[in-house]
Amino acid sequence: MKMKRKISIRKMLQVFLTVVVSTGCIIAIVSASKIEDEKTLTSVAVHFKNDKKYHFIEENEIMDLTINNRNIDVMHTPISKLDIHSMEQIIMADPWVAHAQVFIDNNRVLQMYVTQRLPVARIFQKDSKSYYLDGTLSIMPLSQNYIYYTTVVTNVPELMNDSISWALRKQIVSLVNTIQADSFWNAQISQVIVDSVGAFELVPVLGEQKILFGDVSGMKEKFNNLFLFYKNILNRIGWDKYETFDLRFKNQVVASPALPYNGPGDKAVDKMNWINSIVETEAKNDAKDSVHLAEVKTAKLIAAKTASKKVAKPVTKATAKNSKNTPSKKGPVKKTKQQTIKSKTNDKDKKKKAPKYVYPQNKSN
Hints:
Blueprint: H1 2-37, E1 43-48, H2 59-66, H3 84-92, E2 97-104, E3 109-116, E4 119-125, E5 130-134, E6 139-140, E7 151-156, H4 163-181, H5 183-188, E8 189-194, E9 200-204, E10 210-214, H6 219-237, E11 242-246, E12 254-257, H7 267-308, H8 317-323, H9 337-352
Parallel strand pairs: 1-3, 4-7, 7-8, 10-11
Antiparallel strand pairs: 2-3, 4-5, 5-6, 8-9, 9-10, 11-12
Helix pairs in contact: 7-9
């Protein structure tokens, strides 16, 4: 029985000592915490994770939002009275901020880490209102400090918080990301236009064609087909032969030619006028060729007849009389009938610029 009593007293002593030590530790921690809370900050540091690329918001603006505009003297205010959570929420409410972290480190430095939003497209609404759209489909207002150059999307209807507006935002971001991911299209496409039905039209840098893109379904195939058309067709016949490229059909590029004509606005009539102009041009070329061949044949016949009449004749009184037609002081010598026909034929051939032919010679001469 004595052994049992000794064991019980020993356990009680251990418990008592444990409670005393724990209480002392708690009191020391609380007192140390109170002492730390009564201390003030040594400094404030603001960090931007992507400040080298974007400058929508500056360090002084963060200080104004969290401290200066709230009239807080952080250098003389105890740490326990600083609302760190509210500072973080105020920074996150800024439209140019994507994420923020605010805390106090062991050196009593107020650390603020800020991540700016990444703009994807510059939006111009129908009412001329302009803003940026980022990768999270959020709207970013324009900054007075910084202008970011990116793909421009025009004729956009007012984006509300309904399902149609969010679907249009998603399509715009998807299309612009696809354009910017390719070095060629990022340099070639300068503007994206939204039409009345929500489809897209692309404005190129090189060339004056309108590119009817349609919706964002099959974007990669559409861009690949248009690139092959550029490479295999336009590089051969020229970049000014077409005025419209239609990519809305699957695996097709429908190119409308750019020919000068004054016709109605009906597309079917326009295509028929284009075909008729080609047919008329070919008919004119055929007519010119046939006239040239007829002129050549006529020249050959006249030359053959003229050569056949050159036959040697004996000298007679008639020829003697004709020999009297020599040059004199009175006037020009009269030409014979054959000489007149020959001279007219030669003049006619010179005017028509007929090719030279070797006429048949008279063996009797």
